[in-house]
Amino acid sequence: MAMETFDVIIAGGGPGGSAAGTFLARSGLKTLLLEKDQHPRFHIGESLLPHGNDLLREMGVWDKIVASGNFLPKPGAEFWVADGSDSTQFEFARQLGPKYASSFQVERAKFDELLFHHAAETGCTVRQHCAVTRIDPQPDHVVVEYSNGKATQRVRAGWLVDASGRDAIAGRLLRVPKLPTQRSVRLATHAHFRGVVRNCAATAGNITIARLREGWFWFIPLQGDMTSVGFVQRAAEFRAAGLSPEASFAGAVARNTYLAERMRFAEREGAFRTEGDYSYCFGSFAPHPRILLAGDAAGFVDPIFSSGVMLALKSGRAAADWIARQPDRGLSPGAQKKYTREIKRMMDLYLRIIDTFYDKAGFELLMNPQPILKIPGAVAAVVGGNTDLAFRHRWRLEAFYFLAWLQRWLPVAPRIPLLAPGPQTQSSPP
Ligand SMILES: Cc1cc2nc3c(=O)[nH]c(=O)nc-3n(C[C@H](O)[C@H](O)[C@H](O)COP(=O)(O)OP(=O)(O)OC[C@H]3O[C@@H](n4cnc5c(N)ncnc54)[C@H](O)[C@@H]3O)c2cc1C
To answer: What pTM value is reported for the model?
Structure first.
């Protein structure tokens, strides 16, 4: 029997894969989207950024998201010191204007399912329970093998987009080298809770990030009474303490006033989950002229600033754009580099502010961004997911990073005693 043939195969039906599938199908290309799980399925990454709204609108899925009523509007983000001694707030409407006044907190099972079915409704062929297990790149096409656990199937396409998330199937199977990193390996322990104390009224949908000496907590309110709460810490410190993830989580809550306050009536729904192996990046996001990596399959950025879904949507669209521009011809070596640079530039924007967050002095400045020179507006643009910063934002961000560096020696912003002295100082890698 002749092998089934497509213009494009996408591995992975998360936000990145569904975005790529929607845009490719819309440009008339015969596209197959393979998902190893069955939607709805749990996924972490529940807080979206307002600048991701543009992509959801372009995909034509925004109205479905709003109409579903499943997702809680997110008007801002707030950062706390876990002992409750200091806090700062980013209010999207005020700092980003009406177009980006809010985003959503999403239960990913529902959100990803909606995006996946939207790709199908746009004309993309979708198959679930189909895990890509083999990739055979040829000069002018790619053969992909996938399995449903019982049988394997081989399909052929002009292109492969790898959007398989942190499984990074193409990167692993094709042994694409990763860039070296100095960043610490971190571990996240998280669960859903009922009864977590929430903010009132206008800020009820905010994400809260609470920084403690050994890491940070997130509080993401979801539609209804459920709140996602997670604790991120260095894997080495977690192992050295010899505690279970649950005990480590509970200990941090008990030791920090702000966390204890918010969790005082909390009841866990379901088990704790853990995620590790943070911050990797492949050296090329187009490791073959006809294979493009998108979203977490290209690189994973620490989730403090909730940038993952937005970056996955943007890189999914970028991959679709590059393919739609020249569907019959693979990328030249120059174009392979250009695609990589286009995505890496967005990731780097976040990596820099993430490193600032983990740096003691940087965090002190983030908590008190100096009102001079309208610096907070530039920081808010990044926090809101703007990856195409205007010059007026770019130079202000540079001023912010300069002040964060200066803060190490000269207190431009108030010191935060909770963080000093501790393992997470500027002398240790982020
Ligand atoms: C602890 C933690 C907290 C986070 N918090 C946030 C947050 O608040 N906000 C945010 O925006 N991001 C957050 N992220 C990041 C976010 O989860 C990801 O960046 C985002 O899901 C990436 O989307 P994606 O489409 O690239 O990959 P994924 O969403 O991971 O989707 C990949 C899909 O591919 C499928 N797949 C895997 N292997 C195969 C295969 N071999 N064949 C076929 N299918 C396959 C998977 O089943 C999955 O459905 C967080 C991440 C972590 C670890």
So the answer is: 0.95
